[in-house]
Amino acid sequence: MTTSTQIRLAAYPVGEPGDDAYETVTVELPELADGQVLLRTIYLSLDPYMRGRMSTAKSYAEPVALGEVMVGATVCEVVASRSPDRAVGDVVLAYTGWQTHAVVPARHTRRLDPEAAPVSTALGVLGMPGFTAYGGLLEIGRPQPGETVVVAAATGPVGSAVGQIARVKGARAVGIAGGPEKCRVLVDELGFDAAVDHRSPTFVEDLAAATPDGIDVYFENVGGHVTEAVLRRLNRFARIPVCGVVAWYNATAAPEGPDQFPAFLRRILTLSLTVRGFIQDEFVPTHQEAFLSDMSGWVRDGVVRYQEDVVDGLENAPEAFRGLLRGAYLGKLLVQVGDDPTVDP
Amino acid sequence: MTTSTQIRLAAYPVGEPGDDAYETVTVELPELADGQVLLRTIYLSLDPYMRGRMSTAKSYAEPVALGEVMVGATVCEVVASRSPDRAVGDVVLAYTGWQTHAVVPARHTRRLDPEAAPVSTALGVLGMPGFTAYGGLLEIGRPQPGETVVVAAATGPVGSAVGQIARVKGARAVGIAGGPEKCRVLVDELGFDAAVDHRSPTFVEDLAAATPDGIDVYFENVGGHVTEAVLRRLNRFARIPVCGVVAWYNATAAPEGPDQFPAFLRRILTLSLTVRGFIQDEFVPTHQEAFLSDMSGWVRDGVVRYQEDVVDGLENAPEAFRGLLRGAYLGKLLVQVGDDPTVDP
What we know:
Radius of gyration of chain A: 21 Å
Organism (chains A, B): Nocardioides immobilis
Domain Enoyl reductase (ER) (chains A, B): 18-335
GO molecular function (chains A, B): oxidoreductase activity, acting on the CH-CH group of donors, NAD or NADP as acceptor
Keywords (chains A, B): Oxidoreductase
Largest sheet of chain A: 7 strands, mixed
Strand content of chain A: 15-25%
InterPro entries (chains A, B): ADH-like_C, ADH_N_2, ER, GroES-like_sf, MDR_fam, NAD(P)-bd_dom_sf
Oligomer: homodimer
């Protein structure tokens, strides 16, 4: 009999999710039925969208029910199989959440090829975050050669892909990040044309200096004061794919006034802006194949680079998740739940 | 020598434009040069966009300069011509503004056929307002059969066309207007499926009852509390063409809080909304020909009806314009500046 240690949602948090939002339990897993596999979690992906699933506010997905395992994409090793399609030792992409082991139908997993790319990239640049960048930027942002593309949280897995894909398309990429080290990484390691520190007291002026021709595409994934500064730099016919507003995810009430909503709608009008919210899954039927082909090539050729932050131990997931919402990490945040058999020790 | 009585912009108004925003002068017009025509104004169109031209805030068009004649589309009679393309007695569409006479190049006018449709319609259902409805609804709103389209200021020249075109496309049209008489006109005379009075204390509940399947397209031309109520009824993937926010045109500062902007951006995200500002002229190259053909046919066949409010006398334009911004009129607002030779007395 195999057991799984699970982190479950214990309460819908108000504001930042404290430790009391979770409970940790160890359960016995059932015997495998036909078609099922037993998985051992190697990496758990932590992503901002999870905050939305910890809320009962109306959204595109149902909230996690109280007492349920916290959801999340994982890379796992198959440790037992009753499916002809999966062998013991296979490494797969799954959606087993915040736990050490799980029993799932084999068809809910996708086999990964450790020779093609590090398996962790299936959770980042070659996974959902990379696809979010690819679909949102190309389908909604539609950057043209010579245009200026701005993205915040720019060292993160979505933002870094947005900027680098923008450059592939001939646009100028300006990244916004918190602190000088992240800004250095953007320009020196990720190839952005410019980087702006949103924590600097001269942020508004710095952004203006970094976007002398205005902004044609703003890939929105943070909200807050970054958004307010960017709005003032938009050009006519600018496009704003909205994929997240992480700065406001922990907000418990509407901020104090004045009310900026009328001015925003007026700006949409006077500048003929396009503002379009999206969830990456809507682009899967039309863009998934091209994404895997394009992005694998770009990563292989070094045109698109990626960064990972790996936190050790499932028990540290709650604290890591709080750090994620506060912008404490530089690259794609992963929790190492178990050993990765595909890397040399 | 011919004179023209002109209403000029005397000051950029703060809030509602009072009489002191204007000055009335009578000037002598120059002799006609080759290619020019002398026009006598029959109808002056008053439209909400004019409030934006009375402001130096950044927008898609330059403000009217102080001391300049207030701009506006007109229907005029040619009273003298030095162009082979225009004869005395021709009735033309022009853009001569708030004045009784003007000298302009003949090529800046478009000849109207009084037999095809009343010449006043060139300022309304067959002119810029009708084209605004047509381009914005079909290109951005893209109503599908069975979907629900909501428009405010629904008896106005844009709103009434939006609702009626939506019905042509098989969608359900719900109009929002101020007061029971306008709501009656929407359903009884303009063929809307339902009408909701935004001045009613039960407006929010009434809107919910009138949109049992939610809202798929919201054609935004008013802003204010109407917009706030509509946002709560939007379906996933709803489209919002933004063509005006007249409720806020006279606003002198951002309203008091709370700040609804974060919640709006979050709703764009969670519902995958498309919000797109536009000015009708961007659709001229692609949609003008189809518009004139479609709309003329619909008007001729009685599929699309229109209403006009005619205020007599150029001197009453400032007061009429204030009424327009307050929603005092039911249909397309025209100022009758001179006799219309195409209608029987």
